[in-house]
Amino acid sequence: MLTKGTPSGHDGLSSTEVLPQAFYDRSASAVAPELLGCMLVHETPDGVAAGRIVEVEAYLASNDAANHAHRGMTERNAVMFGPPGHAYVYLIYGMHYCLNAVCCAEGVPEAVLIRALEPVEGIEAMRRRRRRAELKDLTSGPAKLCQALGISGELNGAGLTAPPLGIVSGPRPTSITRTTRVGVSAAKDVLLRWCDAGSPFLSRPIRK
DNA sequence: GACCAGATTGTCT
DNA sequence: GACAATCTGGTCA
What we know:
This protein is α+β, with helices and mostly antiparallel strands. It has one domain (21-194): Roll (3-methyladenine DNA Glycosylase, Chain A). The protein is 13% helix and 28% strand. It is built from 4 helices and 9 strands. It has helices at 21-24, 28-35, 123-130, 142-149; strands at 39-44, 47-59, 87-92, 96-103, 110-121, 161-162, 165-168, 176-179, 193-196. Strands 1, 2, 3, 4, 5, 6, 7, 8 and 9 form a 9-stranded antiparallel beta sheet that branches. A hairpin with a 2-residue loop joins strand 6 and strand 7 (165-168). Helix 3 crosses helix 4 (142-149). The chain binds a DNA duplex through strand 3, strand 4 and helix 4.
């Protein structure tokens, strides 16, 4: 179970702290690198699915044409304008979901896109959802990890500080690399992607 | 391994 | 009507 605050130590997940809302109450560019090494946890009817975050991207409120909220609030991106510490889940290309952690103060639309995980718990359920056996194919992409963890549009706007969804703190990777973002056509030269340089679970190889 | 095209649908102009 | 923060399978070197 997800336990807020003090460690209680049962299944390994509850023995670590869920990141509080205050953690997200900063710029996405400050939050993003600190999410590396943390554990994304989703409690599903199938059991707990969890993975260590190895790749993230920041989307900023100002001077970032790649941000969905760049042109103002719409029905789709409204969650980004809400309070920090919530999940912004959107559908891309008509068939894939992507998960963001909303950051910054309410009214300032910034978010961190979770791009890749290292599978840790619930791996058999992930294999069933993904219909793939290979560990590297389970969560090495923003849409892959949503499918593997059973995250869909129903969780858009859900809190990240209480079940069924949460991120718990973990050890920082020893080597972090900062690069340009993947797949964006606007503002593509800014370095707003952070990777655990030693992880084999990245969605794309590290490039300059 | 690298590259390319197709799938598929909500959102925005 | 065009585009999109992607994935997958097929082809080729």
